[in-house]
Amino acid sequence: MAFTMHSHSGQFCPSHAKDQLEDVILHAIKLGFKTMGLSEHMPRTQLCDLYPDEIDSDPNGALAALAPRHTAYLAEARRLQAKYAGRSSCWSEGLQANYYDEQLVMLEMLRPRVVGHFDLIRLLGEDPGRDVSKWSPDVVWSRARRNLAFVARYGGWLECNTSALRKGLEEPYPSRPIAEEWLRLGGKFTFSDDSHGIAQLATNYTRGLDYLESLGVTELWTFERRVGEDASKAEIVDKCVRISDFRASLRSGDAVKA
């Protein structure tokens, strides 16, 4: 959880800071901060406590401005605290909405047979394990369902991707609510480790298969190259593989380690 506990703004610390307090807070939200300590300087009561640049200008005027400026700061800080409470969640919601909108553009242009890590955006969320159908039903969930329906209509497959487990998430891609919606639409799953080297091949396959079976899935889909009498005219066809057969074909327990 990103945060800062010590910050200033040019609005209330004009002698050596910059920018309006609200702009500072908005930028912190953009950076993913969940907590921000607002710590403008306390008001001073003696000329000897002023900063050099305050003394060089109008020391008495600078001193007189400190107390009312601090009062205004407290009021503005409370106003902004109320205004942006939970704003990080709103930012996350907007980010995920944009993700699914951009995903739809890609789906419409390419119509890929296999849609990889459908909800990859979950990896960047503040709470990757939450139920998106309940957290944001009207903004994020509606878009995810729209995209799933589009893929189902043109006959694409969703990938159950175990790399999410390798990266610390509790469920593969896609999460359970999305997987359940996909199955409700009659969608088919394929299976992937998203490996980036030998060490990651088949990582978390046992957990991924257990997850699919907990959803009621009994078979996976892959492609098979079939060669007829003319070897130069092979074709790629869909092939169904039962999960039980998939498990039995794995040759080493090391291949399914977490």
From TrEMBL:
Pfam families xref list: PHP
GO cellular component terms, A-Z: cytoplasm
Domain of life from the UniProt record: Eukaryota
Pathway(s) this gene product operates in, as recorded in its UniProt entry: Amino-acid biosynthesis; L-histidine biosynthesis; L-histidine from 5-phospho-alpha-D-ribose 1-diphosphate: step 8/9
InterPro entries: Histidinol_P_phosphatase_HisJ, PHP_dom, Pol/histidinol_Pase-like
One record GO biological process: L-histidine biosynthetic process
Reactions accelerated catalytically: L-histidinol phosphate + H2O = L-histidinol + phosphate
Keywords noted in UniProt: Amino-acid biosynthesis, Histidine biosynthesis, Hydrolase
EC numbers for this chain: 3.1.3.15
One MF term in the entry's GO annotations: histidinol-phosphatase activity
Family recorded in the similarity comment: Belongs to the PHP hydrolase family. HisK subfamily.
Name of the protein in question: Histidinol-phosphatase
Organism per entry: Magnaporthiopsis poae (strain ATCC 64411 / 73-15)
